[in-house]
Design brief:
Layout: H1 16-20, E1 32-36, E2 39-42, H2 43-59, E3 67-71, H3 76-87, E4 91-94, H4 101-111, E5 115-118, H5 120-138, H6 142-168, H7 171-201
Parallel strand pairs: 3-4, 3-5
Antiparallel strand pairs: 1-2
Length: 216
């Protein structure tokens, strides 16, 4: 006759990082813990990176039970940030990279997060797109605006496309993302040049801030 299952007794102060990270120290440090996109991370490397991430959070002044929003691609970096937050007693708030800005803003405000961990490609792509948007609004004429859109906009959209390819965790999808990025780089300057020349022929004048007009 099977008795009732016994639940493990947890101490008064329990940290999940002790079970999933620290318990493997000196026991299976050379054993693979994570396989992701053709790369492997051992338990020893995992523990070191979790410690490094937790120390970085402490240096930022993050305290016990404060929230940390995590907006990372599916990668070992997500695990480092997640358990790094838990290890210092903070509360990780994982989010989906496909969420809309409105949903992310709601989660950020609702969780009262004091810090945000973002993947480099997402952050870089978003910053370049922001620069392109500001340039389109603030620059004085169509030519300088087109310059902002074709340069910063291309790099920003390309980085976000690469982020989507990595997020898919599929080589064929990543290859298509790389091809799309290359296509942007090769075609955006040419199309911008043709559009600028057409605009000039149609009578759109340069701003008074421009130094000279080579098409006159």
């Amino acid at each position: 006759m099977v008795g009732e299952p016994r639940l493990t007794e947890l101490p008064a102060r329990y940290n999940a990082a002790e079970t999933f990270i620290d318990s493997h120290r000196g026991v299976r440090e050379s054993t693979i813990a994570i396989r992701c996109q053709g790369k492997s991370v051992t338990y020893g490397e995992l523990a070191s990176n979790v410690d490094r991430c937790g120390n970085a959070f402490r240096e930022l002044g993050i305290e016990l039970e404060q929230r940390i929003l995590i907006l990372c691609l599916d990668s070992p970096a997500f695990v480092y940030a997640f358990f790094g937050a838990i290890k210092i007693g903070a509360v990780p708030v994982p989010t989906n990279t496909l969420l809309t800005p409105r949903d992310l803003a709601y989660i950020l405000n609702d969780s009262r997060a004091v810090a945000v961990v973002v993947s480099v490609l997402l952050l870089g792509g978003s910053l370049f797109c922001l620069v392109a948007s500001v340039g389109i609004i603030r620059l004085p004429d169509i030519y300088s605006r087109m310059h902002a859109a074709s340069k910063a906009g291309t790099v920003g959209s390309g980085l976000l496309l690469l982020a989507a390819g990595i997020h898919a965790q599929d080589f064929s999808t990543l290859a298509r993302a790389l091809a799309g990025f290359l296509f942007f780089i090769l075609t955006a300057p040419i199309s911008a040049h043709l559009l600028a020349k057409t605009a000039h022929n149609a009578g759109y004048f340069l701003s008074t801030l421009s130094v000279r007009d080579d098409l006159k």
